[in-house]
Amino acid sequence: MVEPSSTPLSNAALVPRPVTGVDVRRLPIGPEDAFVLSRVDGVLTQRDIGYCTGLLEERVAVCLETLERLGAIDYAERPHQRASRAPSTSVKGPVSTTGEIAEVSRPIGSTPSAGSNEVPASIPRLQSYDPAELDTHCDLDVERRKAILDLYYQLEVLDHYVLLGVPRHADKKQVKGAYYDRVKTFHPDRYYGKELAHFRAKLEKCFGRLTDAHDTLTSGEKRQEYDAYLLSQAQIAELERAVRQAEQPTVTSADFDDLERRFAESFSAVAKSSTSDPTMATSQPEAAITYASGSGPVPSSRQLTDEERRKALARKLRPSQANLRIPSQANLQAVTPSSASIPPREHIAEQLKRQYELSRKSSNQAQLAALLADADDAIAKGDPVRAANALRTAQSQSPKDTAIAERLAAAQEQAAAALADTYLKQGEYEEKSGRWEAAARSYERAARGKPLAGTWESAARCLLETNGDLRAAGEYVRKAMVLSPGRSASHLLLGRIFMAARMRTSAVTELERARSLDPNNSDTVANLLKRLERESL
Amino acid sequence: MDRVIGIDLGTTNSCVAIMDGDTPVVIPNRGGYKTTPSIVAITEAGKRLVGHIAKRQAITNAENTVYAAKRLIGRKWNTPQVKNALLSCAYGIIEGPHQDLRIKLRDKIYSVPEVSSMVLQEMKIIAEDYLGEPVTKAVITVPAYFNDNQRQATKDAGQIAGLDVIRIINEPTAASLAYGFGKGFDKTIVVYDLGGGTFDVSVLEIGSHGVFKVIATTGDTFLGGEDFDLRIIDWLVERFLEEHGVDLRQDRMALQRLRDAAEKAKCELSSVSETEINLPFIISTGRNEALHLQRTLSRSVLETLTADLVDRTIQITKQAFAEARLGVRDVDETILVGGMTRMPAVQRAVAQLIGKEPNRGVHPDEVVALGAAIQGAALVEDRHNMILLDVTPHALGIMTVGAHFEELIPQNTTVPTSRAKTFTTSRDNQTAVKILVMQGENQKADDNELLGEFVLTGLRRALKGQVEIEVTFSINTDGIVSVSAKDLETGQAQSIQVTASSGLTSDEVKDMMSNAADYMVERRADEAFEGIKQTIETLVSQVESMIPDVERVVGGSDFGRDALAKAKAVVFKARDAVVRKDAAACTEQTDMLDRTIRMFKGVVTRGN
Question: Cβ A183–B389 below 8 Å, yes or no?
């Protein structure tokens, strides 16, 4: 199964730097990317940028990726292995329904090169190899052995596209070309008569999987299904996060107000004793206004005044971040004593405070309106994730607005339902491909999100298929029965489960019940009963 | 380095080829023919005949001449195809153990692979004679639609003949290989292979990248030239029955003559529009009266008689297109393989289906062997950048409750492939589990081919349902099925036995192998002996022609009388040695004869 976005989070502590000489206006980027770019200064980490901008960290990571690719930024140190990040580019913002998912960023020779008998370049390399395996005596050279191990150990993790080394939009011809290229390395005939030791079995498995990938991607129908499957996996990840984050405590505006009040109080205490500095005072309001609207770079060239420092602090404490970096009391204390020498200017302080709060309110309202509009749009487009995010931010702006709270709850419910739907689709695809255990798990998750008798039964059926946990299967069927009693299918399924568990009497009871509920099933029941008879002899 | 030969083991004719540098070449037999009839006979003296020489005496020795053994190989006794063959074959087909077939020739009983191995051995000898070195490795072709039993039996035949069969490949695939190898184009092609006994259609993609991939394949293993011949025979026999009230089929010799005539007529009608079938004294009525058969067969009548056969091939071809999910327009070329594709009706039908003329650039009789030779070289040598991706022609599955067929590996899956399924025990302390493995396309298990009952033994003693065995069904590159099992908990491999074996057991194969080896030694001695025999006969006739002269010169003297007596004795001994086939004695006598001749020459010269 594909694991999207696990890697970007580990890049959180990296520091992006702007590249000099790049004309930002010429880059093909959107407002979000530009916003992130404006925060890139070689000091803030990815996570910090997330806090500054109010964007989700994953979004920031994706924007940074785009910017890096375009050459607008670079890193002091390389990010972690990006290999399995390829599928995660599909997590970019709201999942696009046009299917236009970003190309795999690693260089791919989609047309095989002349010396194409060489080791294929685009399978991501493993971090390390087990020497016992690598050094087995056989007739392969080291590069070849590594290539086989690379593919073999990532068979489950890589999706079909990466496996074959083709971009998502590759046409049939490209897929075939890539497959034939790979086949030259991974078909056992290539090594006829050679001593292969344990590599032979690995080769055959790799070949089988490559053939599966080729067959899926060259059949129009199967490819559509598979793409939908990958999409749903990405969606699930996002939805889960949306649903999960709802349960985490967020820092609300109330907390923020409280802190503000305390700062203001301590400020007034300080301002009373400080001498007024007209130049400083006049420059404050602009700074205050710009800070309040939440844009503008962190001033790094001139020294921070108290007000500016406080504003910077206040900005850093914006809500919608799970982790709150509240400066310790020691820091707060540090602020006040040093400014004790400045005589307080009460009226200026009050004026500043009012202006600050006014501008904050107006910008807040503008922002609120924008967020609500965004949420509406998202709901209209059927994207509960985006709606939930927008509404959550809106709620933190004005926590007392019950309308917003209601809408947020509704959006989260929708997200949970969409999650369940996506799990259901995933389960269906997995069942069709014969991956029973994975299908059972997906169905179970779907059923927990959206309890339906049919879904529970599907989960039970998959467990039965694979001779899995029959007790759990039984439980699922009972859940189904609770939801919709009197379904012949449920009793039939339960009967089969009992048969598999060799509980004969219970099986017979359930089968009979199934038959009585729906006479159409009597043939099936009769066959099963006969089989039961035969097996118990 | 061992060179690998490619053998096309055909129903009617076989062909052998080898790679000469970068090109495959067909190896002609001693008579200069590029193909050899797949016919085996045992003479009254017990001597084995194979090939052209066997065909020539087929009429007079009909009961002990086997042809079209390929139609029987790998089949079971009570199948409709075998029953069909019983009606039309002059040689004896009987039931063997495990429902197998056996062939009775003179007083000995042979299995079908054994008979085929005689043909393979002949091809091996042809290659060895040409190359001047021993040959041990071969690639043998089979119809694409052959099932597992038939492939296994063919491989057994190769083994019995003393060949290491490194690969079994499908005939259409081999043909496509010969067509596209080294040419560097990318095409989607259809191979229409109508041979002596079988029909195959394969859809392939061939490319400059060196990968030959089969997309779909289907066919009929009991549809071929022989059936066309049978139609003609039926037509002749029925009219004869009406006219004379005699069923010619009852007489083996008549039947054989009819067969020959029918085949000849069929071939002729590919180039002329009318031919005469003339069989005088075809049968005697017992009243010392002989009956004659004389009839004119026109091409149009032949086409009417065989229209349904041609139509069936077209239906199967359409099926192949459907399986490959391609339309007629997606196909770049159609290649015709097999002697029957020379028939105008067949060519017309194919052209009509695909909407354009089929490609005639390949030799229909030789292309398969050439392809086999290419594949052999590609496997053994490292330099050829070519990979063959073939498919399995039949679905593989197991029989489940209610005689249903549960598919594990679908039809047209690329091989090698494997699928696993988990089984468990149904009783406490159960130590063995039985699985019935079948191959075929039918929903009902009974209509499919049973490959064997695989029994897993040595399971751990545990409560029912606790022991989980993962059984892996694999199809290898030969298209042959193998089953392995593993106890999921311990990871221990379980043993699998094939009970109710179809075909020959390995012991049986070993026995037959040693018999064949004896024949090889025998045969080799035979050939060497022929040489000596020739020499002696020449020398003897030379001596005998000189005797009158010698008598004239020295007949009166003692020396003369002695010399002549000795010469006569040597001639007598030489002749005797020849009859006894005593090679050592022959060599001795050759020396004696030489000396006699020298002496005689001396006498005559001095005397004159």
Answer: yes
Helices and strands, counts by H and E, chain B: 13, 27
Give the rounded percent of residues in chain A with a pLDDT score beyond 90.
1
List Cα–Cα distances, A6 to A49, A128, A231, B61, B380, in angstroms.
Answer: 19, 20, 16, 80, 46
Q: Which of B140-154, B259-273, B459-473 has the lowest mean pLDDT?
A: B459-473
| B-chain residues near A117 (CB < 8 A) | 385
Give the nearest partner residue to B379 out of A116, A189, A467, using CB atoms. Answer: A189
Q: Which residues pair with B206 in a beta bridge?
A: B187, B212
CA-based end-to-end distance of chain A: 43
| Residue with tokens 């032979």, as numbered in its chain | A200
Would you call the peptide bond into A94 cis, given omega within 30 degrees of 0 as the criterion?
no
Query: CB–CB of A204 and B424 under 8 A?
Result: no
A387: left (phi over 0), alpha (psi -120 to 50) or beta: alpha
Q: Are B480 and B151 in contact (CB under 8 A)?
A: yes
How far A192 CA lies from chain B's nearest CA (Å)? 6
Per the model's pLDDT, the better-predicted residue between B563 and B124 turns out to be: B124
First to last CA, chain B: 61
Q: Does B390 touch chain A (CB under 8 A)?
A: no
C-beta separation of A427 from A442 below 8 A: yes
Nearest CB neighbour to A112, from listed B209, B325, B416: B209
- B487 in contact with chain A, both atoms CB, cutoff 8 A: no
Whether A435 and chain B come into contact, CB under 8 Å, resolves to: no
Write out the H or E segment, with its range, that includes residue B296.
Answer: strand B290-298
- Of chain B, the percentage scoring pLDDT greater than 70 comes to 93
Non-local CB neighbours of A136 within 8 Å, separated by 6+ positions: A197, A198, A199
**Counting one residue from A and one from B, how many pairs have CB atoms under 8 Å apart?**
59
Q: Which residues of B touch A189 (CB under 8 A)?
A: 378-379, 387-388, 477
Name the closest residue on chain B to residue A209, using Cα atoms: B417
Backbone angles phi, psi at B304, to 5 degrees: -65, -45
Closest by CA to B119, choosing from B43, B29, B222, is B29
- A184: contact with B, CB 8 A cutoff: yes
Q: Say what the pLDDT of residue B344 is.
A: 94
| CB contact (8 A) between residue A184 and residue B211 | yes
State the pLDDT at residue B126: 95
Percent of chain A with pLDDT over 70: 68
Q: What is the ipTM of this complex?
A: 0.74
Cα distance between residue B582 and residue B572, in whole Å: 14
Query: Annotated active-site positions of B, please?
Result: 8, 70, 171, 193
CB-based contact, A177 to chain B, within 8 Å: yes
Q: What average pLDDT does the segment B475-497 reach?
A: 75
A47 CA: distance to closest CA in chain B (Å): 46
Closest CA to A36 of A26, A47, A49: A49
Give the pLDDT of residue A298.
39
Q: Which of A220-224, A532-536, B34-38 has the lowest mean pLDDT?
A: A532-536
DSSP label of A45: -
**Nearest CA to A17 among A79, A68, A59?**
A68
As a whole number of angstroms, the distance between CA A362 and CA A293 comes to 9
Quote the pLDDT of residue A459.
86
Helices (H), strands (E): how many in chain A? 23, 2
Q: B523 or B113: which carries more pLDDT confidence?
A: B113
| C-alpha A526 chain-centroid distance | 49
Contact B230, B205 (CB under 8 A): no
- B209 to A184: CB separation less than 8 angstroms, yes or no: yes
CB atoms B213 and A180 under 8 Å: yes
Q: Judging by beta carbons within 10 Å of its beta carbon (0-12, 13-18, 19+), is residue A181 exposed, middle or buried?
A: buried
